[in-house]
Specification:
Blueprint lengths: L9 H21 L10 H12 L2 E6 L4 E9 L3 E5 L6 E4 L3 E6 L1 H6 L8 H22 L1
Antiparallel strand pairs: 1-2, 1-5, 2-3, 3-4
């Protein structure tokens, strides 16, 4: 017994599309779209911190702070690599919030700040210029 596949013809597909477009009208085009269920912002943030090996602080629901770098994550948990203790697998529902460690923000970026000796040398130079101006006025 041979079975025949029943498929709509091209004309039937066009008629259905016309009916749907008449039913929707211009009101549907102006309507706001529903935002996507998943924006992937969380995965992008974790991936960026993992790639840079950024030192992070995880604050738990009870206020305890865990410091380390994020080694990997999945939908339900985060693996935190710590130098000062054993690595931890933290369930996400126990995390209140996450932020970058102050050590990372303040401690490692000292190369951009000018040295104190340079500042005092600049001050000495301006004082010498002021003295020479006073002498020339006399």
């Amino acid at each position: 017994m041979n079975r025949k596949l029943i498929r709509p013809t091209l004309a039937e597909i066009r008629e259905k599309a016309e009916r749907d477009s008449r039913r929707g009208g211009p009101a549907d085009q102006n309507r706001k779209r529903v935002p996507p269920e998943q924006t992937h912002a969380e995965s992008f943030y974790y991936k960026k911190q993992m790639d840079n090996k950024t030192k992070m602080v995880l604050v738990l629901q009870d206020g305890e702070e865990l410091r380390g770098t994020i080694e990997w994550y999945d939908r339900n948990c985060i693996k935190l690599h710590r130098a000062s203790g054993p690595n931890l697998l933290v369930l996400k529902h126990n995390v209140k919030y996450i932020f970058k460690s102050d050590e990372e923000l303040n401690g490692d970026n000292t190369s951009d700040a000018p040295d104190e000796t340079e500042e005092t040398d600049d001050l000495d130079a301006t004082e010498e210029n002021d003295d020479s101006d006073e002498e020339s006025d006399e």
